[in-house]
Design brief:
4 strands, rod-shaped, 4-stranded antiparallel beta sheet
């Protein structure tokens, strides 16, 4: 009889101990898990911004015309298609909510020259050897505020040389 009572008492005590251990370790574990998710999101945003910038610059530096296969002199070139360049960046950065206002298009005449911001006009001229510069900037916001860490901006600039009509 005494042994039964002692065993029942020990079982109850162990159940309470497991509950206490869970209560102490669960917040630490969940905080670490949340940190892993946030770090993964930072990497995802970084890769998406880099990919968007690279693909938009690649589109802009392509030779040819987006509207026709023959590419007559009057047709719009890829580097003149500012909406198409920005849409290419947005389509290649799925999941981060990239907007056209976060994409900057510039052109320069080579390394060491001052870039000119593109006003997105259809009469933009680009000679062989000139460069297309695409900058994509996205603000990263933490899902849960982490003490000591602030929201920050992820940005990437890609330079691509225009090789002219092929």
């Amino acid at each position: 009889m005494i042994m039964r009572t002692l065993r029942a008492f020990c079982k109850r005590k162990q159940k309470g101990q497991a509950m206490l251990e869970l209560a102490l370790t669960l917040p630490i574990f969940l905080t670490m898990l949340l940190g892993v998710f946030e770090v993964a999101r930072v990497f995802f945003y970084n890769v998406s911004v880099n990919n968007a910038s690279r693909e938009a610059a690649r589109y802009a530096a392509s030779s040819g015309c987006p509207s026709s296969s023959t590419c007559a002199a009057a047709d719009m070139q890829y580097f003149e298609d500012c909406t198409g360049i920005k849409n290419r960046a947005i389509n290649k950065s799925v999941g981060i909510g990239l907007k056209a206002s976060e994409i900057t298009l510039q052109f320069d005449t080579g390394h060491g020259t001052t870039p000119t911001t593109n006003p997105c006009t259809a009469n933009q001229t680009l000679a062989t050897g000139n460069r297309v510069i695409v900058t994509v900037t996205k603000n990263f916001v933490f899902i849960v505020p982490i003490p000591g860490l602030k929201n920050f901006t992820i940005s990437n600039t890609t330079y691509r040389t225009y090789m002219g009509q092929v």
